[in-house]
TrEMBL record:
Source species: Halcyon senegalensis
InterPro entries assigned: GSKIP, GSKIP_dom, GSKIP_dom_sf
Gene Ontology molecular functions: kinase regulator activity; protein kinase A binding
Region (Disordered), start-end ranges: 1-24
Family, similarity comment: Belongs to the GSKIP family.
GO cellular component: cytoplasm
GO biological process: regulation of canonical Wnt signaling pathway
Residue ranges of every copy of the GSKIP domain listed in the record: 34-134
UniProt-listed Gene3D superfamilies: Hypothetical protein (hspc210)
Protein name: GSKIP protein
Protein backbone atom coordinates (compact mmCIF):
# COMPACT_ATOMS: atom_id res chain seq x y z
CA UNK A 1 0.00 0.00 0.00
CA UNK A 2 1.40 3.41 -0.92
CA UNK A 3 1.65 5.94 1.88
CA UNK A 4 -0.20 9.22 1.48
CA UNK A 5 -0.47 12.18 3.79
CA UNK A 6 -4.07 12.96 4.61
CA UNK A 7 -5.40 16.04 6.29
CA UNK A 8 -7.88 15.36 9.14
CA UNK A 9 -10.69 16.81 7.01
CA UNK A 10 -10.51 14.04 4.43
CA UNK A 11 -12.78 11.06 4.76
CA UNK A 12 -11.68 7.55 3.92
CA UNK A 13 -13.51 5.91 1.00
CA UNK A 14 -15.12 3.28 3.20
CA UNK A 15 -17.14 5.57 5.46
CA UNK A 16 -20.38 4.06 4.22
CA UNK A 17 -21.99 7.40 3.42
CA UNK A 18 -24.38 7.16 0.47
CA UNK A 19 -24.40 9.20 -2.73
CA UNK A 20 -27.01 11.60 -1.38
CA UNK A 21 -25.16 12.12 1.88
CA UNK A 22 -24.29 15.57 3.18
CA UNK A 23 -20.66 14.48 2.91
CA UNK A 24 -20.68 14.20 -0.90
CA UNK A 25 -18.76 17.50 -1.06
CA UNK A 26 -15.79 15.54 0.24
CA UNK A 27 -15.92 13.21 -2.75
CA UNK A 28 -13.16 13.92 -5.18
CA UNK A 29 -10.63 15.00 -2.57
CA UNK A 30 -8.72 11.80 -3.40
CA UNK A 31 -8.36 12.91 -7.02
CA UNK A 32 -6.08 15.69 -5.90
CA UNK A 33 -4.29 13.27 -3.57
CA UNK A 34 -3.43 10.78 -6.34
CA UNK A 35 -2.26 13.65 -8.57
CA UNK A 36 -0.15 14.99 -5.67
CA UNK A 37 1.23 11.51 -5.09
CA UNK A 38 2.12 11.32 -8.80
CA UNK A 39 3.82 14.75 -8.64
CA UNK A 40 5.84 13.56 -5.62
CA UNK A 41 6.91 10.42 -7.52
CA UNK A 42 8.08 12.57 -10.45
CA UNK A 43 9.99 14.98 -8.20
CA UNK A 44 11.73 12.06 -6.47
CA UNK A 45 13.35 10.56 -9.55
CA UNK A 46 13.30 13.22 -12.27
CA UNK A 47 17.07 13.71 -11.91
CA UNK A 48 17.70 10.10 -12.97
CA UNK A 49 15.56 9.96 -16.14
CA UNK A 50 15.47 12.00 -19.37
CA UNK A 51 11.91 13.24 -18.90
CA UNK A 52 9.04 12.55 -16.52
CA UNK A 53 5.71 14.28 -15.92
CA UNK A 54 2.14 13.63 -14.81
CA UNK A 55 -0.12 13.11 -17.84
CA UNK A 56 -2.45 15.99 -18.57
CA UNK A 57 -4.23 13.99 -21.30
CA UNK A 58 -5.24 10.84 -19.42
CA UNK A 59 -7.87 11.38 -16.72
CA UNK A 60 -6.94 11.44 -13.05
CA UNK A 61 -9.58 9.55 -11.12
CA UNK A 62 -10.18 9.02 -7.44
CA UNK A 63 -7.86 6.04 -7.41
CA UNK A 64 -5.51 6.50 -10.36
CA UNK A 65 -3.04 8.91 -11.97
CA UNK A 66 -0.81 8.46 -15.02
CA UNK A 67 2.85 9.39 -15.32
CA UNK A 68 4.84 9.64 -18.55
CA UNK A 69 8.51 8.74 -18.31
CA UNK A 70 11.34 8.69 -20.82
CA UNK A 71 14.37 6.77 -19.63
CA UNK A 72 17.94 7.81 -20.39
CA UNK A 73 17.91 5.04 -23.00
CA UNK A 74 15.16 7.06 -24.76
CA UNK A 75 12.44 4.47 -24.09
CA UNK A 76 9.02 5.97 -23.38
CA UNK A 77 6.48 4.56 -20.96
CA UNK A 78 3.14 5.52 -19.54
CA UNK A 79 2.84 4.44 -15.91
CA UNK A 80 -0.32 3.92 -13.93
CA UNK A 81 -0.21 4.92 -10.25
CA UNK A 82 -2.81 3.33 -7.96
CA UNK A 83 -3.01 2.14 -4.37
CA UNK A 84 -1.55 -1.15 -5.65
CA UNK A 85 1.59 0.64 -6.81
CA UNK A 86 3.00 1.56 -10.22
CA UNK A 87 2.97 -0.38 -13.46
CA UNK A 88 3.66 0.17 -17.15
CA UNK A 89 0.39 0.53 -19.10
CA UNK A 90 1.87 1.54 -22.48
CA UNK A 91 5.13 1.98 -24.36
CA UNK A 92 4.47 5.61 -25.26
CA UNK A 93 3.32 8.82 -23.58
CA UNK A 94 -0.37 9.35 -22.75
CA UNK A 95 -1.45 5.85 -23.82
CA UNK A 96 -2.97 2.83 -22.12
CA UNK A 97 -3.03 -0.66 -23.58
CA UNK A 98 -5.60 -2.92 -21.90
CA UNK A 99 -3.80 -6.02 -23.26
CA UNK A 100 -0.61 -5.16 -21.39
CA UNK A 101 -0.43 -7.18 -18.19
CA UNK A 102 2.64 -5.82 -16.43
CA UNK A 103 3.37 -6.39 -12.74
CA UNK A 104 2.82 -3.72 -10.10
CA UNK A 105 5.87 -2.29 -8.35
CA UNK A 106 5.58 -0.99 -4.82
CA UNK A 107 7.93 1.92 -5.53
CA UNK A 108 8.96 4.01 -8.51
CA UNK A 109 12.58 3.08 -7.70
CA UNK A 110 11.85 -0.63 -8.16
CA UNK A 111 9.93 -0.02 -11.40
CA UNK A 112 12.62 2.19 -12.96
CA UNK A 113 15.33 -0.17 -11.73
CA UNK A 114 13.69 -2.93 -13.78
CA UNK A 115 13.28 -0.73 -16.90
CA UNK A 116 16.46 1.29 -17.11
CA UNK A 117 20.08 0.30 -16.41
CA UNK A 118 21.06 3.98 -16.86
CA UNK A 119 18.55 4.98 -14.15
CA UNK A 120 20.09 2.41 -11.83
CA UNK A 121 23.58 3.81 -12.48
CA UNK A 122 22.60 7.48 -12.02
CA UNK A 123 20.54 6.73 -8.91
CA UNK A 124 23.33 4.58 -7.44
CA UNK A 125 25.93 7.31 -8.08
CA UNK A 126 23.69 9.94 -6.45
CA UNK A 127 23.34 7.65 -3.44
CA UNK A 128 27.10 7.18 -3.22
CA UNK A 129 27.69 10.94 -3.38
CA UNK A 130 25.21 11.49 -0.54
CA UNK A 131 26.90 8.84 1.55
CA UNK A 132 30.33 10.39 0.89
CA UNK A 133 28.96 13.80 1.93
CA UNK A 134 27.52 12.31 5.12
CA UNK A 135 30.85 10.65 5.89
CA UNK A 136 32.65 14.01 5.49
CA UNK A 137 30.13 15.76 7.74
CA UNK A 138 30.80 13.23 10.50
CA UNK A 139 34.59 13.56 10.42
Amino acid sequence: RMETDCSPMELPNNTGFGEDSDYRDFEGTDVKDMRLEAEAVVNDVLFAVSNMFVSKTLPCAEDVAYINVETRERNRYCLELTEAGLRVVAYDFDQTDERLQTPYHETVYSLLDSLSPAYREVFGNALLQRLEALKKDQS
